[in-house]
Amino acid sequence: MFRTYCRAALRNLHRNKTYSLVNIVGLAVGLATVLVIFLIVQFEYSFDNFHKNKDRIYRLVSVPYKEGTGFNATAAVPLPVAAGLRIDYPQIEKVASIFGRDAQITIEEGKEQEEKKFNETRSIYFAEPSFFDIFSFEWLAGDPKTALNDPNSVVLTREIAEKYFGDWRSAIGKTIKYDNKEIYQIKGILENPPVNTDFPLKIVISYRSLKNVDLNDWVGTYGRGYCFALLPPGSDPAKFNLSLHDFVKRHKPADHINDGIILQPLADIHFNPVFGNFNGRTFSKKIIGTLSLVALFLIIIASVNFINLATVQMINRSKEIGVRKVLGSGRAQLVVQFIGETALITVCAVLLALGLATLALPFLNDLLQTEISINFSDLRTILFLIILTISVTLLAGFYPAVISSGFRPIEALKNKLSAGWMRGISLRRVLVVLQFCIAQALFICVLIMVSQMNYFYNVPLGFDKEAIVNVPIPSDSISQTKMESVRNRLLQLPGVRDLSFSTFSPLDNDIWNNYFKFDHSPKKTDFLTYFKWADASFFKTYNLEFIAGKPYSQSDTLREYVVNETLVKNLGIRNPKDILGKEINFWDQKRGPVVGVVKDYNTNSLQTPIVPVVMGCWKDVYQVIGIKMVPGTAKQTLASVEKIWNGAYPDYVYEYEFLNEKINRYYKEESRLSDLYKIFAGIAVFICCLGLYGLVSFMAAQRIKEIGIRKVLGASVNSIMYLFSREFTVLIGVAFIIAAPLAYYFMQRWLEGFSFRVHTGPGLFLFAIAGSLVLAWLTVGYKSFKAATANPVISLRNE
User: Fold this and answer.
1) What is the pTM of this model?
2) Three-class DSSP labels, 610-622
3) Helices marked H in 72-212
4) Neighbour-count burial for 179-202, b at 16+ CB within 10 Å, e otherwise
């Protein structure tokens, strides 16, 4: 019997090639997308699972114990926290500090060979030896317990060692020069960290080599100064968090005991955008939930598509079903046969989906900056494919099988449908509405995402970002003496309009913040202030607007300050002019009057609100030159800038980045996800169009005699095409009425995650419904035209 069913299924698929192809392609596209989403989710959840003690590893992070204190949550903690934990909590197995920095690495290979210079960004970390007791990174050479004990010792990954020396084995014992200052000896080699880790370690230097930071400051934090702890087995993190309240009280000044510290599990680091991670790439669990929902929707759409097409096919096979029933086939046998045929189609679709997913993964990896692949030796992947195949088979095949197996033999042989069958038609209309409801909701969501991304790229930021290039500069004392000479030479270039030396560009996600005393107050402010140290040319170069006072005078040290509107408001001052002349005091050392107030501008990416900002001249901390060029002269101007830069700083590597490109980079993750959702929405619409094609095919098959009679009575082709279009237009309209408010609700919640966001208007929704209707009309145009132009004699001859 099984062989008979298989032979009948294959014969049926071969006889109805178009039906089979549309069904398999529709299912395959949907299943391939679902498989890709599964691989994405599986990859994201695999981050840092290779660490032996992953369930007991925690990062200490800073949070406000009370809302409204002005203190912002951050992954960094004061640098003395690690030492304090070792003393106050001896029961903790291991505690480790790690501090990230960017620098130039120089390789000196002898007098006869030229030096090799490399600018390393987001890859250099100063770490305590206990860091490698907490984390399970693989070592190729060296002793993890002693390699970082001594000052001026360093550990490299295999990739970096081969980049610097050709062969990692020959790197042991050699030296590297850090930022043209310190010499570090290589004491060990790490295997390259796997791609699914949030720790992009490449160069790890002994923590005892860390300089120019205050290791005793319990108030301030550095943006990349982290602390990790390995708790004993059986520890209760919630109880430990409560005890950290007392820890803060013991060590922080009384006016900062609301600047709390809590534990963050290692498993949360990859998914928590509030605290971020080492490589700046977090993947929110909300996104995973959204992707999982998209996968479910695509399975539903593909299954509904199958049901519609299967229903059309059952009409054509009604006589076959009637003959089988007359010859003794029971309903259960027919159900098994039709579900078996569905299983065959599903298996073919799964095999095609594997091929489509394999072809799509290189593009996906390039889009998301991942390294995802299909691993057929992975039990979870195999199990997922099996469950997916069975689920889709039952979801897509059960309804057509039950309905068609219930045909009455006489009616089936006469091609007449019962009332129950007609109720099935109504159900299929509901399914089509469901399909287009999902597709239009995804379409609207994508339109809002695209609008938000366009808003990011085009919204005024409060400063000029066009034709400005940022060139990093060395921070050593010798290089600082050359700043004025470099400034004068650059200003002589015909392509340079203005330039400014500063610590950061106007909008920069690298931060430096702290509290200050205002107007001779003995207490510090209850809100953090962000620093934008820059020379007096900063305001002209970036075209910042003053609302009170004037720029500070050019100076090498902090003497005067300029603040923004938000800082004035946070101090409770209504009129910006009232702050002029008042004193700001940092660390009881850097005092000076406020001489100007600038209009608020965006200092960080648009995901975050505008923060209080203080600005002043401080030559010792400048890190970048902002050069405003004459539009259209970038190529020749940058070539001249490079010559001047290399002449002034021959020991350093020249690099540059356009400010607008740097700003756009902050929205890279949102842009990637927007592109991904565009693809998914397009796939949903494509499958829906196949489903609509199935519905029109069904209508044409059901109403073929009606169409013949209408044509005999004089109906035109246009009127018959209208007959078809009226039905699906109403269905799409109903789907839109349901989809629009749902999409609006969910996207408003998504937009709440951005401090600056686009406002959705009716035009976007009108575009969505218009686009859906146009696509639908194009989809059914051919089939409805073919039905309208068919010879009525053929359709009526049995009567």
Assistant:
1) 0.78
2) CCCEEEECCHHHC
3) 81-88, 131-134, 158-165
4) bbebebebbbbbebbeebbbbbbb
